[in-house]
Design a protein that fits this description.
The chain is built from 10 helices and 15 strands. By secondary structure, the protein is α/β, with parallel strands linked by helices. It has 2 domains: 219 residues, 3-Layer(aba) Sandwich (Aspartate Aminotransferase, domain 2), CATH 3.40.640; 119 residues, Aspartate Aminotransferase, domain 1 (Alpha-Beta Complex), CATH 3.90.1150.10. Strand 6 and strand 7 form a beta hairpin. Helix 1 packs antiparallel against helix 7, helix 3 packs parallel to helix 4 and helix 3 crosses helix 6. The two termini are 25 Å apart.
Length: 364
């Protein structure tokens, strides 16, 4: 028996379309990237979508088009993949980590305001694992201090905060299409916004700072090569047709896990508000501190079940641990979080098998 952590949903339609693009010889950013952008914008109900080479590239450009740089500070949650902090550092600004709410794994709203300074320029909430962050109070804080809001929605395409889709609530939203995300283009990302000025700046920066003037390339700024290839765009275009089906299946499987783990006090199951739509990009449980997380993961590995840690406490990483500041909830989630297998082609029997081995290690 072998149950993988995740397997992207790619079928013959995707393979056929990608092969068609490869055979055409037109491989760089082109008509399929544009179509993919249109489909994402239409799905989200937003004006502009700009495809880029990765979710990290999307976050980096989001900061740059907001003119964030040296002397600026950006509020981020501490429990997140380090890319959230890395892109801030790449602009020479300072990432200011905030502890999290252990029930949702998202930024603790009550701890944001005390960390805002005169240098703070933006708040970058993360909709971690597809679970929407509590955006209304974040927007209120941002409005009070005249801050921009960049949504790190890498895991959250299709997630809803009340009736609003994640990524469309702040000034800019950023998505990832890495193979572990809801849909995939292999690597790839997307910036979305309703601001035409920001969108145009993002388009130029992703392609060496170029703008077409009278049929000629004019390099107006120093830019990047953050383009998405056309075969990635074709893959994304077909994936978008499956998006709601993929999310629906993830919700079904996550509910199965939730029901089977009910009543086990040593396992903290993911929480969401009933008004929100969680897309379950990952199913991350939180083990009681008495349980050896690494031994638990080793037990599942020997049973043929692949797992991973939830994600990282940024403040614990050597490149960010400058002040020896401990954020207790983030640290606990980092040390005791476990990501269990979840992907649309899992069966009910697969879920039951994972749960059986989890229960064999963990007492009720």
């Amino acid at each position: 028996m072998s149950i993988r952590l995740t397997i992207p949903t790619i079928d013959d339609d995707e393979i056929s379309k990608v092969a068609e693009v490869l055979r055409s010889g037109y491989l760089v950013q082109g008509k399929y990237v544009q179509k993919f952008e249109q489909l994402v914008a239409e799905y989200l109900g937003i004006k502009y979508a700009i495809a880029v080479s990765s979710g990290t590239a999307a976050l980096h450009l989001a900061l740059l088009i907001l003119d964030i740089g040296p002397v600026d500070e950006v509020i981020i949650p501490d429990f997140t993949f380090p890319a959230t902090a890395n892109v801030v550092s790449l602009t020479k600004a300072l990432a200011v980590p905030v502890d999290i709410d252990l029930e949702t794994f998202n930024i603790d709203i009550g701890k944001i305001e005390s960390l805002i300074s005169k240098r703070t320029k933006a708040i970058m909430p993360v909709h971690l694992f597809g679970n929407p962050a509590d955006m209304n109070p974040i927007l209120q804080i941002a409005d009070k201090y005249n801050l921009s809001v960049i949504e790190d929605a890498a895991c959250a395409l299709g997630a809803k905060y009340y009736e609003k889709k994640c990524g469309t609530i702040g000034n800019i939203g950023c998505f990832s299409f890495h193979p572990r995300k809801i849909i995939t283009t292999g690597e790839g990302g997307m910036i979305v916004t309703n601001d035409a000025i920001l969108a145009n700046k993002a388009r130029r920066l992703r392609n060496h700072g170029v703008r077409r003037v009278a049929g000629q390339n004019v390099f107006e700024m120093v830019g990047y090569n953050y383009r998405m290839t056309d075969f990635q765009g074709a893959l994304g275009m077909i994936q978008m047709k499956r998006l709601e089906e993929i999310i629906g299946r993830r919700i079904e499987l996550a509910n199965l896990y939730n029901n089977k783990f009910e009543g086990i006090s040593s396992i903290g199951c993911p929480k969401r508000k009933k008004e929100m739509r969680h897309t379950w990009q990952s199913y991350v449980i939180l083990l009681n501190k008495k349980i050896d997380r690494n031994a638990f993961m080793a037990h599942l590995k020997t049973s043929g079940i692949e797992t991973a840690i939830g994600t990282y406490a940024v403040s614990c990483q050597p490149c960010y641990n400058k002040k020896n500041r401990v954020l207790p909830n983030s640290l606990f989630a980092y040390k005791q979080g476990v990501c269990l297998p979840l992907y649309p082609k899992m069966t009910v029997e697969d879920i039951a098998e994972v749960v059986r081995y989890v229960k064999a290690f963990i007492p009720r």
